[in-house]
From TrEMBL:
Keywords linked to the UniProt accession: Cell inner membrane, Cell membrane, Membrane, Transmembrane, Transmembrane helix, Transport
Name of the protein this chain belongs to: TRAP transporter large permease protein
UniProt source species: Azospirillum thermophilum
Keyword set includes Transmembrane helix: yes
GO CC annotation: plasma membrane
Length: 427
């Protein structure tokens, strides 16, 4: 009865439109009461769910991403990328992809990356002859690499839920798949641009390379500080987030002089609100996870899945299809919190590497960030462009297919994820 209350209660509450945090917490509490596990376990698990040192990095990285977004770093990086690619058919679209990848190495958040790049790139791309739906699709898909390229908020949450995978190992493992995912988008972007003649009016002079590099150096140096400091052991991932915040403040206030006291207050308020939402979901999901694990519900679900088929390839294919479908409806954090308690026993049964498994899951969820109907990144870029999401479907599906191709490679060639952390001594 308690297990029925846990799963059925969660589904009913979600169908009734309850917020995810409420549905998770209430379903877990009902199961705990029915099984007489002690009502005091609810507040205990709420506290234990967020009283974890790695989670301190989440609000700080969110703040760092907002600071770099508002400081105008994206504009300087766009100019630098344009000096490399030059004015050519499809060139500005490729610039948008490259800028999203670099900004992803600062913010760790897909929506934040999409907002920063779309604000700068969509007007320029429109003037150069790119349709707004196409531009919004390219930027939304490229911004999804932010949760793969370190630092990644998704990897931090995964490391808390799967302690066998350390944050430095996950950061290193996500780098090559993140770059591969970004480069996979270049193929349909250039092909579609040439096929439809997008960007033919992009005939402006190429920005001077050395001057644009000098102007963009402050932004380009941020990922170097974060990842270099982690590799050298100078600071932990949580401390790296704090360093990123102070570096961003120095760039925004002293170098670019784009951040005022008023804007700093607004940044802090927005970061606090975004962090509170994420941490509240994590806290109440901990009640759901504890109830399920204590009752043995997750192990039974995993055993049922393994009983259906013991073929590892079939399980991987079914898992990827399910994750891609869920990614179209829920955000990455929610899917991690709901599914990881169910998937961890399957991972253990097949002896899959938890770091590779985390990268594969995250790549699925990255694709979900720009796949309608939910598509949080696409929501951001279409709002900036002033268009409907429906108008992007004919373009964004090409981006989905391209990144699914990269996902297949990462799924069946684990060394794409594991080579770098092994070389760096994290595994």
């Amino acid at each position: 009865m308690a297990m029925t209350l846990l799963f059925a209660g969660f589904l009913v509450l979600m169908l009734l439109g309850a917020p995810l945090a409420v549905a998770l917490g209430l379903a877990g509490t009902l199961a705990i009461l029915d099984a007489q596990l002690g009502i005091l376990s609810v507040p205990t698990n709420v506290y234990a769910g967020i009283a974890k040192y790695p989670l301190l990095a989440i609000p700080v990285f969110i703040l760092a991403g907002l600071i770099f977004e508002r400081a105008g770093v994206a504009k300087q990086i766009v100019t630098f990328a344009s000096s490399i690619v030059g004015a050519r058919n499809g060139g500005l679209a490729v610039v948008a992809i490259l800028v999203c990848m670099v900004m992803g190495g600062i913010s760790g958040s897909g929506p934040a990356d999409a907002a920063a790049v779309a604000t700068v790139m969509i007007p320029s791309m429109h003037k150069a002859g790119y349709p707004k739906p196409f531009s919004a699709s390219v930027i939304a898909s490229a911004a999804a690499t932010a949760i793969l390229i370190p630092p990644s908020v998704a990897f931090i949450i995964y490391s808390v839920l799967v302690p066998q995978a350390s944050v430095p190992a996950l950061f290193a493992a996500g780098l090559i798949p993140g770059i591969l995912a970004g480069l996979s988008l270049v193929i349909p972007t250039v092909w579609l641009s040439r096929r439809h003649g997008f960007g033919l009016s992009d005939t402006g002079p190429r920005p001077p390379f050395w001057q644009s590099l000098k102007d963009a150096a402050w932004g380009l140096f941020a990922p170097v500080i974060i990842l270099g400091g982690l590799r050298a052991g100078v600071f932990t991932p949580t401390e790296a987030a704090v360093v990123a915040v102070f570096y961003g403040l120095a760039v925004g206030v002293l170098v670019f002089r784009t951040l005022s006291w008023r804007s700093l207050y607004e940044l802090l308020a927005e970061a606090a609100e975004m962090s509170a939402v994420v941490l509240l979901i994590i806290a109440l999901a901990s009640v759901f996870a504890w109830a399920g694990s204590t009752l043995g519900a997750f192990d039974r679900v995993a055993a049922a899945a393994l009983a259906a088929t013991s073929n590892e390839i079939v399980i991987l294919l079914l898992l990827n299809v399910a994750l891609l479908a869920l990614g179209m409806l829920l955000d990455a954090v929610s899917i991690f919190l709901i599914l990881l308690p169910l998937l961890t026993p399957i991972m253990t049964a097949f002896e899959w590497d938890p770091v590779w498994f985390g990268v594969m899951l995250t790549m699925n969820l990255a694709i979900g960030q720009f796949t309608p109907p939910m598509a949080v990144n696409l929501m951001v870029t279409t709002r900036v462009a002033g268009i409907t999401m429906e108008s992007t479907v004919r373009w964004v599906l090409w981006m989905v297919l391209a990144m699914v191709g990269a996902l297949v490679l990462v799924t069946f060639v684990p060394d794409l994820s594991l080579w770098l952390p092994r070389r760096l001594g994290y595994l």
